[in-house]
Amino acid sequence: MRKRILPISIIIFFLIVVIVVFFWFRNSTPEAFTRGEAVAVATTPVQVYDGLWNSNRIFDELYFPVGIALDGSNVIVADSMADRIQVLDNRENQRIGRPGRYGFSYFESGAFVDGFHENAMFMKPFGVSVSRDGNLIVSDTGNNAIRLINNEFVITIAGNGNSGFRDGNESEALFNQPRAAVMCPNGYIYVADTMNHVIRRISPSGDVSLFAGTPNVHGFIDGTLLEARFFEPSGLYISTNEMNDFVIYIADSANHAIRRIENGQVTTVAGQRGEPIRFTNYFAGGHVDGSNDIAMFDSPRDIALLPDGSILVADSLNHAIRKVTPTHTITLVGGGSAGRFHESTENLRLTRPEGIATDGETLFISDTMNNRVVSMPLTERVLGGRPPRNQMLAETGLTLNSRFAFRGDIRIFMGSQRVDIGRVAPWIRNESIFVPVRPLLEFVGADVHLNEQTGELSIIIDDTVTTLMRDIDYFILRGVMVTTLDEIIRLFPYTIEWFPELSLIVLYIPVDLRG
């Protein structure tokens, strides 16, 4: 029996199609990395930078942005999977390092090349900080090296491209995927040598030595510098105490904890490990707010300090930004499920944020898996925190498996009680959620008064009067006053959370303030 053979023309056709598709993916920018406009909203504004910065300052497409640092008005980002550093100043966007191939060719690497900015190459840089003289210090994670960027050149401070552990001079020393490097005021550079599970120190003359921990031994032990144990330390921040002695804060990622080194002692500020994860050396994290001895994180990657000494944490696998005070840990933004929503800080969704920086007034976040940088002002409302989403959802008696009960309609709950919103149901249009004003606000005890002649709507909450104008702040639909959920969030003094998975809005009042 003769075998059937495909005509040569069909084979050639399919080969051409495969080649065209391959090169189209290889050279195109993935959809998640396309440029987008900065977003500002009426409540606590959020700026989103994944292409355009305020429509006239440009970030090139970001590809897994991780470390982030501030230098005056400059914002510096370790654009890790693009193998480069991006610097945004008031004039232009500067890209340092020739990027490796990215997009479809995910596994192609950068390289280890010193030289002029345009010729130098990095390999998966994860950390960036500013030295005391204004240069940039880069944790070139994939090259197992610490690099320095001055006005013209990229040079290597320590490491030679090989992984391992070895102290010595700048060319002899070995690191294993260092993720953070920060300069102390005395000129020493401290390095989170992540996969060696230790903190290293580089002297001004370039000598590398062990500072804290035991090489290649992970654990969770407080104590003296050499007694202490870490587990994949990933973020560093250096501050000073009241005696003007320096203090090192550490995001101890796989221990799910924030650690501190002060006066030769390593202590735990907040966080703890959960249960061991079967068949691995790792432990579960969690998302628990409360006193620091019970608080839980999930792979915190980076930290920053506020002027009052509170610690901000990029809590990566909780998709949240947390704040640690001397006594308590709270959630500021994000949390729960990953996402990309950014109508306001109250509804902001992040996906694995791994970098954080602040000047005390504005917070910058590397929203890593969303390939963008998010900025927001640190208002009193933001700094006041918000309960974890799982806590708010638990009070309704619903779970993420309850979606079958909603049939796509948007429902509103406070605690376990559903809010009766009348004949006009909430709806979504152009990423904004519209809700009826009177039934929602009266449910939480607000007084609502409408001046029929002027269209002014007066809302009184806790003796605070707010006026909304018809056709500006609200509009009339079938005889019902309607506005955006964003406007309600601005008026409501507590927390409102949107659960897109359940088409659910939750009104949350802290327990100690409930009547």
Describe it.
The chain is built from five helices and 40 strands. Helices cover 9% and strands 37% of the residues. With 515 residues, the protein is mainly beta. It has a five-stranded antiparallel sheet with strand order 8-12-11-10-9, with no helix packed on it. It has a five-stranded antiparallel sheet with strand order 17-21-20-19-18, with no helix packed on it.
Keywords:
515 residues, mainly beta, five-stranded antiparallel sheet, 5 helices, 40 strands, 9% helix
Mean pLDDT figure: 82
Major pleated sheet? 5 strands, antiparallel
Structural class, from secondary structure content?
mainly beta
Number of helices: 5
Beta-strand content bin: 35-45%
Quote the distance from N terminus to C terminus.
87 Å
Helical residue percent band: under 10%
- Note the overall shape: globular
- Poorly predicted residue ranges: 21-45, 50-59, 101-107, 403-407
Strand order of the largest sheet: 8-12-11-10-9
Radius of gyration: 26 Å
Number of strands: 40
Blueprint of the fold:
Layout: H1 8-27, E1 47-49, E2 52-53, E3 57-58, E4 65-71, E5 74-79, E6 84-88, E7 93-96, E8 115-116, E9 127-130, E10 136-140, E11 145-149, E12 153-158, E13 180-183, E14 189-193, E15 198-202, E16 208-212, E17 223-224, E18 233-240, E19 246-252, E20 257-262, E21 265-271, E22 290-291, E23 300-305, E24 311-315, E25 320-324, E26 328-334, E27 353-358, E28 362-367, E29 372-377, H2 380-383, H3 389-396, E30 411-414, E31 417-418, E32 427-429, E33 432-436, H4 437-443, E34 447-450, E35 456-461, E36 464-469, E37 475-477, E38 480-484, H5 485-491, E39 495-499, E40 504-508
Parallel strand pairs: 30-40
Antiparallel strand pairs: 1-29, 2-3, 4-5, 5-6, 6-7, 8-12, 9-10, 10-11, 11-12, 13-14, 14-15, 15-16, 17-21, 18-19, 19-20, 20-21, 22-26, 23-24, 24-25, 25-26, 27-28, 28-29, 30-31, 32-33, 33-38, 34-35, 35-36, 37-38, 39-40
